[in-house]
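hi! just following up on the protien thing from before. the input was this:
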Amino acid sequence: MSDADDVAAMFHRAGSEIAGEVRKTVFKGALNVKKTAVGLAPKHLHTDDITFEIEDSGDEIAAVIETRGKGGAIFEFGTPSLPGGRPFLLPALEPEGDNLEKYVSEIVAGLFR
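and the predicted 3d structure came back as:
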């Protein structure tokens, strides 16, 4: 077996373990985004108005974070009478992206220890 075959076999064996760890990390990140967004959102939006769902296709794990109803989108993106809106999802998402990258990199680096 070549070195490349050894590395491929190692990734294959570790795949399900890595996927589980990445799924937990994505879930935690989505929860952090939701908590931050709730704090930034207009007070008439409730915790239940901001939702997230984890999607796992096997090749990709993603969090879909959104608001229920029209109120959230109006505040997030604005209207002609409220230009620019009062964003709360995007500001909550931006810092969490860096954290996600860091934690997933640590998970993958753990394969080589």
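The mean pLDDT is 82.
The chain has one domain: 3-112.
cheers
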